[in-house]
Amino acid sequence: MTITHETTAFRTSAIDPALLARLRDTDDAGRAPELSTHEEGGAPLRCCLRHAAPGDRIALLSYAPLRHWAAETGANPGPYLEMGPVFVHADADACPGPPSGDGYPLPMHGTDRVFRAYSADGRILGGRLVRLSHDEAAAGAADAELAAMFSDPEVALVHVRAVEFGCFLFAARRAG
Predict the structure, then answer these.
(1) Residue 99 CB neighbours (<10 A)
(2) Residue 101: CA atoms inside 13 Å, Cβ hemisphere, count?
(3) Is the separation of the CB atoms in 88 and 20 below 8 Å?
(4) What is the mean pLDDT of residues 55-74?
(5) How confident is the model at residue 53 (pLDDT cuts 50, 70, 90)?
(6) What is the average pLDDT score of the chain?
(7) Which of 86, 97, 72 has the alpha carbon at shortest distance from 160?
(8) What would the 3-class secondary structure string for the chain be?
(9) What's this model's pTM, rounded to 2 decimal places?
């Protein structure tokens, strides 16, 4: 999903499907994911940027987002590499893929988020606490916040994270 805000363009993305195929077998910690049926629903899924529906089969796995970005870009984030838990659909066939449209995915709204900016070499440049509701106005506010961060030419990547657990939700990258 790519959005252009004034002169700053960025795209948001879920975890790449090819990478997910590997992670569903062995996660970034070298372990098999923990599989379960999510009875009540609501777990934030990083494969499709939606919340799990009641009864969805999900996998909890370890994911190191900067490691994969650094492998693509040649960055060397050094001590900023971190790994954390993420939920994904247990089966690729059950995943509808990310929502269509541009910008911040509306299904991921509804609570406080941290937007953490990284430089092209993978170093943390700063972060912002962003409060999001479930409405369309919040979608525009989130996009404006990301655009403001990308207006700094040093920002190459922004991770969106949950405040309450610190978990990685998705990445936004400078488009182009």
Answers:
(1) 15
(2) 12
(3) yes
(4) 96
(5) very high
(6) 89
(7) 86
(8) CEEEECCEEEEEECCCHHHHHHHCCCCCCCCCCEEEEECCCCCEECCCCEECCCCEEEEEEEECHHHHHHHHHCCCCHHHCCCEEEEEECCHHHCCCCCCCCCCCHHHCCCEEEEEEECCCCCEEEEEEEECCCCHHHHHHHHHHHHHHHCCCCCCEEEEEECCCCCEEEEEEECC
(9) 0.89
CA 5, distance to chain mean position in Å, is 20
**pLDDT per position as a tens digit, 125-155:** 999 998 887 666 566 788 889 999 999 999 9
Cα 153 to Cα 117: distance, rounded to the nearest angstrom:
11
CA 33 to chain centre: 18
Rounded CA-CA distance 138/35 in Å is 33
Q: Which of 102, 101, 65, 97 is nearest to 81 (CA)?
A: 65
Distance CA 167, CA 115 (A): 12
- What single letter denotes the amino acid at residue 38? H
- In tens, the pLDDT along 80-93 reads 889 999 999 999 99
